[in-house]
Design a protein that fits this description.
The complex is a heterodimer of chains A (about 600) and B (about 170).
Chain A: H1 2-69, H2 73-84, E1 89-96, E2 101-103, H3 109-112, E3 118-122, E4 125-134, E5 137-146, H4 151-250, H5 255-284, E6 293-295, H6 297-303, H7 305-312, E7 316-322, E8 329-331, H8 333-350, E9 355-366, H9 368-372, E10 381-390, H10 397-400, H11 420-430, E11 434-440, E12 444-452, E13 477-481, H12 485-497, E14 501-505, H13 508-516, E15 523-527, H14 536-545, E16 552-556, E17 564-565, E18 568-569, E19 574-577, H15 582-598
Parallel strand pairs in A: 7-9, 13-14, 13-15, 15-16, 16-19
Antiparallel strand pairs in A: 1-2, 1-5, 3-4, 4-5, 6-8, 9-10, 10-12, 11-12, 17-18
Helix pairs in contact in A: 1-2, 1-4, 4-5, 4-12, 5-11, 7-8, 8-11
Chain B: H1 2-18, H2 29-39, E1 44-45, E2 53-58, H3 66-70, E3 75-80, E4 91-94, H4 102-109, E5 115-119, E6 129-134, E7 137-143, H5 144-149, E8 153-154, H6 156-161, E9 165-166
The chains are: A alpha/beta (about 600), B alpha/beta (about 170).
The structure holds adenosine-5'-triphosphate (ATP) and magnesium ion (MG).
Chain lengths: ~600, ~170
């Protein structure tokens, strides 16, 4: 289309040029024609003038022949005067046979010219010399000098050619201007065309990017739904396996129970791996509940040193370039570590022969121009960049678009899940950040994570105090709300095993029924998503309305907006993500109860 | 008026400038007549063609070699005592000698295409052209009657210069 357009444009320009050339050629031809005509006219005029003068000179010769021959000076002078009265004749001169001359004027240069018959121009004046002959007898010479042409007649003679010249010149001038304007217009057209094509290309790119982000969104919805179901199942499976383990431990040892224990361990291991995958899928779909905290990015990267070195192996050199005065960020520390680790592992896989991995932090301001180019949307402002660069194989441009898609991998079956970068992407997007990827085949890859700067002065998140696992039991009363039957009984089993008194409910109404029956809970442990009139958040509010001051522990496989604002937990809300293990639940419950006891909440 | 005055002065100048004869001295009347004699045929029609021009001087000759010297054309001057119809003259200049008077000489060639010239100094008898000296200038009378009798036509230019014309 654009090719055709520029071709058409070129054709128009060529036609215009041709037309202009025709005009220019015509003008030049006109000018040349005018000159030629003028010259011809002038020559013709001169020839005619010469002829006329010759005729007149002959008449003159005839008139003076007799007085000349018979030396009748008075008659001669009379005739001379008669001729000189003609306004077109400036001088009339008569020469005798011996060259002696008779003229009315004091001798002029015209009198001294040699006596040769004929007409010629001397100083722009026509001079005609004729012999005086009677019956073949040569008696002398006459000479007529024409008066200079009156200005008016000269003008008249040259007016036509002058006019023609002026017209031709004007024509040339117009044509030149026209050509200039045409040229300018063509230039403008071309520029406009180029601009248009540029815009079209830009729009095409933007559309492509938008399609890509829409695809990612759709994929996220799909995988999120599947992952959520899997999560519930995995929680049950893992719970069951843990219970088996605990029961097996109580049995007397023996080869049989040892074999069962190994089988259980393997099953648990598989389930845990499956749980990691579902976590990543959830992360990609941005439905993974995040617990953002205020972080120092440098400290986080430094803290990963050991982990990274172990992951990278000995052939890969690890370099960290940390900017001084890095801004704080607001992000889920565990997930950020996860993301960096995923990038490091990818880098390692891209450098089988070894190489160098550089992790860099920097403060960055992303302006509107940059933000506008991010199709999935980005708020311009201050960010902290964490860049992971390797000297590995790099990626061809055509796969750069696809690497963030879940399950996209170039690795052998069983080696890569294709979910590493999906986690990075989903997590960063969910944290209101941005991922950029730069890669060149054979040179290496840089992936930059931008996370929004955290403004405000609150303290950095403290590392949680380790809890004595032996002291995870308790006798408090817990209101457990969970719609998934297996999961409800699994959670209730754990809590009861730990010594808590539990009232179970499958939805909000049932939970309120518990309260109505006189159950006063010390902790509300509720799924975020519930069937019926209440979701977890609303249920907590309903409980609070009954003047029951109780801490709330939420659980979820994934969340929408109930307790998580845009995927991030409100401050002061506790959450345990599915699937959870016996220990995780025991520890979380104990921690929430202990904190509530330490700092009683005011209603 | 001024232009006319200027013209008069110019004329005077031209006369002064152009009037000088190339020889320096004023030519004699005889020399002038000699020159005229060879020029008359150019203003006459009816003379038989042929060069050179035969000029016959019938009677005493006062020119000497003046005619040959001042001739405008190739000329043969024959000095005759008596002219006859067969003398072959184009021009007869009759001065009236002892053997043949001017009148006789003219009578002999009358009717033949011969231009006859006479001179006032040689007697009153006039030929077709008759020299006189008037106002110190050599001038002439013209007789077209005699000329037409001899089937000659004298040019009007010549008539215009003549002192008198008989026709
Ligand atoms: N640093 C890198 N250098 C070269 N290629 C990379 C790099 N990072 C990712 N890739 C390419 O992107 C693909 C997707 O990466 P991703 O982390 O999403 O999945 P994976 O690494 O294949 O699988 P997993 O992370 O589960 O092991 C990889 O298979 C690889 O082809
Ligand atoms: Mg990977």
């Amino acid at each position: 289309m654009s090719m055709m357009e520029s071709e058409a444009l070129g054709r128009v320009r060529r036609t215009e040029r041709r037309q202009f050339n025709i005009v220019r050629f015509s003008a030049v031809a006109l000018l040349a024609l005018g000159l030629i005509l003028g010259v011809l006219r002038e020559l013709d005029f001169r020839a005619q003038a010469a002829d006329a003068a010759r005729v007149q000179a002959d008449i003159f010769a005839g008139a003076v022949s007799a007085p000349l021959a018979f030396e009748d000076r008075p008659t001669l002078l009379q005739n001379l005067r008669a001729f000189q009265r003609d306004p077109e004749i400036a001088e009339a001169i008569v020469y005798g046979m011996g060259g002696e001359q008779v003229a009315l004027r004091p001798s002029s240069e015209f009198q001294k010219l040699p006596l040769q018959p004929g007409a010629r121009r001397v100083q722009g004046r026509l001079v005609v010399t004729r012999p005086v002959i009677e019956e073949g007898v040569h008696l002398g010479w006459v000479r007529l000098v024409a008066a200079p042409d009156p200005l008016l007649r000269v003008l008249g003679r040259y007016a036509a050619i002058g006019l023609m010249t002026v017209i031709a010149t004007l024509l040339l001038w117009f044509a030149g201007r026209m050509a200039l304007r045409l040229e300018q217009r063509a230039g403008q057209l071309e520029a406009a065309n180029a601009r248009l094509q540029d815009e079209m290309a830009q729009r095409a790119r933007a559309e492509e990017a938008l399609r890509q982000s829409q695809k990612m969104e759709a994929l996220g919805q799909l995988t999120g739904g599947v992952a959520h179901d899997f999560n519930n199942l995995l929680t049950v499976i893992m719970g069951g396996l843990e219970t088996i383990g605990r029961q097996l431990a109580k049995l007397p040892g023996g080869p049989e129970s040892a074999r069962m224990m190994r089988a259980r361990d393997m099953a648990l291991h598989g389930a845990e791996r499956a749980a990691t995958l579902t976590q990543r899928l959830l992360a990609f779909s941005r439905r993974q509940p995040l617990q953002p905290a205020t972080l120092d990015p440098n400290k986080l990267v430094q803290g990963m040193g050991d982990l990274l070195r172990r992951a990278l192996g000995e052939t890969i050199e690890l370099e960290t370039v940390l900017t001084g005065g890095a801004w704080r960020i607001q992000a889920d520390a565990a997930q950020l570590e996860n993301a960096i680790l995923n990038l490091a592992v990818n880098a390692r896989d891209a450098m089988p022969e070894g190489g160098r991995l550089t992790i860099e932090t920097a403060n960055a301001s992303l302006d509107e121009a940059y933000a506008d180019k991010v199709p999935e949307g980005l708020t311009p402002g201050q960010y902290v960049m964490i860049a992971v660069t390797d000297t590995g194989s790099g990626m061809p441009p055509e796969i750069l678009n696809m690497v963030f898609e879940p399950f996209f991998t170039t690795k052998e079956v069983g080696k890569g899940t294709g979910l590493g970068l999906s986690q990075v992407y989903g997590f960063v997007r969910q944290s209101h950040g941005h991922v950029a990827i730069y890669s060149e085949v054979g040179v290496g890859t840089t992936i930059k994570i931008y996370l929004p700067r955290r403004l405000g002065e609150e303290a950095l998140a403290e590392d949680a105090q380790p809890i004595n696992t032996d002291l995870l039991t308790g006798d408090e009363r817990i209101l457990l709300v969970e719609d998934h039957d297996d999961l409800r009984s699994y959670s209730a089993g754990i809590l009861r095993e730990l010594g808590y008194e539990v009232c179970v409910a499958r939805d909000g109404d049932a939970a309120l029924g518990c309260l109505d029956s006189g159950f006063v809970p010390d902790l509300l442990f509720t799924d975020v998503i519930l069937p019926g009139g209440y979701n977890g958040r609303q249920l907590a509010d309903a409980v609070a309305e009954r003047k029951i001051d109780v801490p709330v522990l939420f659980t979820t496989g994934y969340t929408r907006n109930a307790i998580v604002h845009h995927g991030r937990l409100d401050p002061g809300v506790d959450l345990i993500t599915k699937p959870f293990t016996f220990e995780q639940l025991a520890e979380k419950v104990r921690r929430v109860l202990d904190r509530a006891a330490a700092e009683p909440r005011t209603p | 008026m001024r232009a006319k005055a200027l013209l008069v002065r110019l004329m005077a100048f031209a006369l002064a400038a152009g009037g000088a004869a190339p020889a320096g001295a004023q030519p004699s009347d005889a020399a002038i007549k000699a020159a005229f004699i060879t020029k008359f045929p150019a203003f006459v029609q009816g003379l038989p063609d042929g060069a050179p021009l035969n000029v016959c001087i019938v009677g005493p000759d006062s020119f000497g070699s003046a005619i040959e010297r001042s001739a405008a054309v190739r000329v043969v001057v024959r000095r005759l005592a008596v002219v006859t119809p067969t003398s072959g003259c184009h021009v007869v200049y009759a001065t009236g000698g002892a053997r043949q008077s001017v009148r006789d000489a003219l009578a002999i060639v009358a009717g033949a295409p011969v231009l006859t010239i006479t001179d006032g100094g040689a007697g009153p008898t006039r030929g077709m052209i008759h020299f006189v000296v008037a106002g110190e200038r050599v001038r002439f009378h013209v007789d077209t009657l005699q000329a037409s009798r001899s089937h000659l036509q004298l040019s009007s230019k010549l008539l215009a210069l003549a002192l008198s014309v008989r026709q």
